[in-house]
């Protein structure tokens, strides 16, 4: 998956939607390609301090001159705003350089627009929920990284006692009617 990442030295407005000007020499060569407007966008300010906020949303190029382009932005208000220092915990997972010295520092501190390869939504939600790539790792069994998700697998969290057998069987039957399989911890 790809997404736009736009770092703006002045930061991004608080308003959930609006228009901003951006230096035309800091955009991808194909910035006017309508397909870029279809990609999700990560809006960031320069730097990685805790008071710098990152948001996810969408953009549309609405005008240009020799020195600037005009972008219409809109934040996805159903997703949480996150601090950029927390975003750093998933940077390499979503195709961003880790914040450091040398040329990697440019990737977080200079106004520019880049198209990045990575699963932006999964990473943002994990960070927003307080996780990091190494958080909540089980110690008794191994989990694949990235996790393999079986969309046809349902899990029932319930007591194993015989009094719940009919309830569990009803859940298994309902899952089967939808073409899914259902398991409980005692039958895996």
Descriptors for this entry?
7-stranded mixed β-sheet, two-stranded parallel sheet, alpha+beta, single chain, elongated, 188 residues, 2 domains, 28% strand, 5 helices
Q: Any overview of this molecule?
A:
With 188 residues, the protein is an alpha+beta fold. The protein is built from five helices and nine strands. The protein has two domains: 2-128; 153-187, no CATH class. The chain is elongated. The mean pLDDT is 83.
Largest sheet: 7 strands, mixed
Q: What is the terminal-to-terminal distance?
A: 32 Å
**SS class:** alpha+beta
> Average pLDDT, to the nearest integer?
83
Please tally the helical runs, counting DSSP H or I stretches of 4 or more residues. Answer: 5
The tally of domains stands at 2
Radius of gyration: 22 Å
Poorly predicted runs are none
DSSP E strands, number: 9
**What order do the helices and strands follow?**
EEHEEEEHHEHEHE
DSSP strand content:
25-35%
Helix content: 10-25%
Summed up, what is this model?
The protein contains five helices and nine strands, in the order ββαββββααβαβαβ. The protein has 188 residues and is an alpha+beta fold.
Question: Topology of this protein?
Answer:
Layout: E1 2-8, E2 17-23, H1 34-38, E3 41-45, E4 53-64, E5 68-75, E6 82-83, H2 84-87, H3 106-109, E7 112-117, H4 120-128, E8 153-155, H5 165-177, E9 181-183
Parallel strand pairs: 1-3, 8-9
Antiparallel strand pairs: 1-7, 2-5, 3-4, 4-5, 4-6
